[in-house]
TrEMBL record:
Family stated for the protein in its record: Belongs to the MINDY deubiquitinase family. FAM188 subfamily.
Superkingdom of source: Eukaryota
Lineage: Eukaryota, Metazoa, Ecdysozoa, Arthropoda, Hexapoda
Keyword Protein biosynthesis: no
One MF term in the entry's GO annotations: calcium ion binding
GO annotation, biological process: protein K48-linked deubiquitination; proteolysis
Swiss-Prot/TrEMBL catalytic activity: Thiol-dependent hydrolysis of ester, thioester, amide, peptide and isopeptide bonds formed by the C-terminal Gly of ubiquitin (a 76-residue protein attached to proteins as an intracellular targeting signal)
Compositional bias annotation for Basic and acidic residues: 143-154
Its job: Hydrolase that can remove 'Lys-48'-linked conjugated ubiquitin from proteins.
Region annotation Disordered: where it falls in the sequence: 135-154
Protein name listed in UniProt: Ubiquitin carboxyl-terminal hydrolase MINDY
Keyword Hydrolase set for record: yes
Amino acid sequence: MAHNPGSVDEDLIKEIKVLLWGNNVKEDVFNRWAQGFQFSTDEPTALVQLEGGPCAVIAPVQAYIIKNLLLKGPPDTWKNITNDEQNELLIKSTMEIILQAADSQFPRYSLVNFNINDDNLMPNGELSQTVPSPVNETMNETENTKQSDSTRIDSSKTTFDSNYFHSRLRIYTTMNIDDVKKYLTMKINTLKEPFGVLLLLYTVVCTKGIPGMHSEMSDQTEPAIDSTYGYGSQSLINLMLTGRAVSHVWDHDQDVGGLKLRGIDKQNAIGFLAFLEHLRFCEVGTFLKSPSHPVWVLGSETHLTVLFSTDRRLVSPETPAEQARRVFKRFDPEGNNFIPTNLLQDVLAELDLVADTEYVDIMRKKLDCESLGIILLASFMDEFFPEEPRTCPDTFPLLHYNGLPRSNPDNCIVYRAGEAVLLECTVKCILDSNPMLTVLQTKWPSIEIQWNGNITPSLN
């Protein structure tokens, strides 16, 4: 029995379209996003970004690909990857991004496809038990796998019409994780074709749901994709990285003047570092600065790239002192590095330290001996968490990915390697500084890096 998408599907697509693009889709911006996931011929595990804009999706996918590669073996073994292994990496990484966007208690996955045969759907729009695939489509997809990467990349430079694209979108819904994997496996070549990046984006947004997006975004009136330059908003970047469409990158939610500003709620698998933090336009919390895998998306003012390391000591578990610093800052939303004395008991209780009234009164007097009514972060840390031994290594390898050919020497997209050194000085070394060093100093203030060939990779 055929299923014709009703007004529910059409209305949902319209809502997603407005949320992402605003009331009017700029065709030139849309076309910059109309590309598939293609691997570089020079670095077979690195994705190619054809134009500025879709890095908000491509860089997070690349970060998850690298995370999964690091669990398999060192980078010098990645060159011999097969086409099937590329597909497997793409499926696993996109699946992770989709799953974390779903409601954790009542997961429901909405998979968006282009030009789908409606017979694949049951009358209620749910995935059938076995996702069927028309014979011709299977044959075409098999033929597509024989195309070279360069052919695919050239074909994605064609001009596309956004209205046509949106009119051909169809939505599968399922509550079964296995269906998601089956679907992505069947549609792997669709991800590689010109609308692949957009289809993943729409799938993630649709899985999150419009109410979920609106509840986490600070400003629902601003489109998630900049109408002039095509850049993805921080909400969009956070959605792809963490599953939360929040607009800020600090830890937890913060109350600023009675306004609740949503942040990152737990340690993430992939990290994020921002050049704008150096300019004090944002504050990246420890949940993103210290992820569970040594992979970070780097945000310049206009582009996203990926930094990673093979040294897992960079992501050792959060120490008690790091946890204490993070919790203290929750009670210091304005970043003053002090809290009112009346909040000391709450901080101690949050950290599972002794918090009975008599003890707290004694500590208040000790930490605020001049009766100023405040407790300094430094005094608090000295009292409860004296200096811990350093767990971060002094030297470690770093590798950097930039998906734009024009941002790489000779237009070759390859991982650029370097060796990092953490100097003894605690003051930022700003001599001969550069954007790459500046953004990395937001996490490692005393870092210096010697890049292979003395060529510093580009953040833009």
